[in-house]
Write a structure and sequence with these properties.
The structure is a homotrimer of 151-residue chains. By secondary structure, chain A is α/β, with parallel strands linked by helices. Chain A is built from three helices and six strands; from the N terminus they run E-H-E-E-E-H-E-E-H. In chain A, helix 1 links the parallel strand 1 and strand 2. Chains A, B, C: Pfam families: Tautomerase_2 (PF14552). Chains A, B, C: This is 4-oxalocrotonate tautomerase. Chains A, B, C: It comes from Streptomyces sparsogenes DSM 40356. Chains A, B, C: InterPro entries: Tauto_MSAD (IPR037479), Tautomerase/MIF_sf (IPR014347).
């Protein structure tokens, strides 16, 4: 479900790939998303009129390694899981992409089950036949053996 | 009102135009938006560091024909209209752009009347003079004779 | 906190910079954001498959000078401040970038304190040590002596 936009500066395709995996693996581990529940838009800004702006808000020093991660997901995740997500994204962004934790910015926006269509013109989460674990965003997290999948 | 972002892979301008029309016509038909209520950002990702990621979540097989459609609109649309919207978007994306319904992904995010400014620095939906049908997102849909307008 | 996306047509880097400053200064003045609380994605659409669509909705005549400004911020700002924001954005977009007020489109999306991470893997607004003025979006606006800062 989560719909993710990642915006970074520069033209390194491998870095952008790594950031996408960092965000996805962190969400699988901490929120409990299925490993194949991945929908991402990855954009590196490097052209004449496409860029990012940032400052040192809250005393956090940022530089051109800054990464903006905007995630849309259903409401219902407890604050503890969101905090775990931020921690893990920062860790994996550093591990996978060399991004310093100070440069990792995350913002979440929530909606509801009926606000998603995953193809075939259906609102899968709002259909009577949807599995219970997909219908309940607050369901316990199942252990994930290998979250670091990549296509 | 709706603010729409459409992200697709590839460099076919006509296809992106067709997807924009598919989404707009579907919204006019199923949600009842006025035909001239169109605000869209259309982006084809084809460069070195701008791309989409996807998997076969929920058993839906996707490929590089995948289209991400993110719509911001006011709260208040009943679930039935949202479901009708998904169905119609999938139909028209196929009819106009040749996109297979399995590749059509839609996510909605809601806000309120005061969260919109349509120019001139005004919050048009929150002004006392706004017409009633614009002020009420749950108002009945008026029949639309020719929704397939294009500028 | 606010996360801002600005989409415009054309390839003028100075214009995009000016629009970014217009939106930021307007938010500092009317909503009371700290001057260094700036997180922006600025995109000029000029390529083969990246563009904007618009019509004359609500009788407002728009042209290729149209600017889409999408702002994510925490809930709690009173309607009066949002209206003041729209007015000031339109004024400053004209003053800084020559954008006509009719071409300035703004849409807000709200979330909560725990939905933000400003680096270091922390949910700064949801930590017990966060300063009170950062924790309360409805707190009175402090006078800002020089909002027109630029990095």
């Amino acid at each position: 479900m989560p719909f993710v936009r990642i915006d970074a500066l520069g033209a390194d395709r491998d870095r952008l790939d790594a950031l996408g995996r960092a965000v996805h693996d962190a969400m699988v581990e901490t929120i409990g998303f299925p490993p194949d529940d991945r929908f991402q838009v990855l954009v590196g800004h490097q052209g004449a009129v496409s860029t990012l702006r940032y400052d040192d808000y809250l005393g956090v020093h940022r530089d051109d390694g800054v990464v903006y991660i905007a995630i849309t997901l259903r409401s219902g995740r407890p604050p503890e899981r969101k905090k775990a997500l931020y921690r893990r994204v920062a860790e994996l962004a550093q591990e996978y992409a060399g991004t310093e934790p100070r440069n990792v910015f995350v913002v979440l926006t929530e909606n509801e089950s009926v606000d998603w269509s995953f193809g075939h013109g259906l609102a899968q989460y709002a259909e009577p036949t949807v599995p219970a674990d997909l219908a309940d965003p607050a369901a316990p997290i199942e252990p994930v053996s290998s979250p670091a999948e990549e296509s």
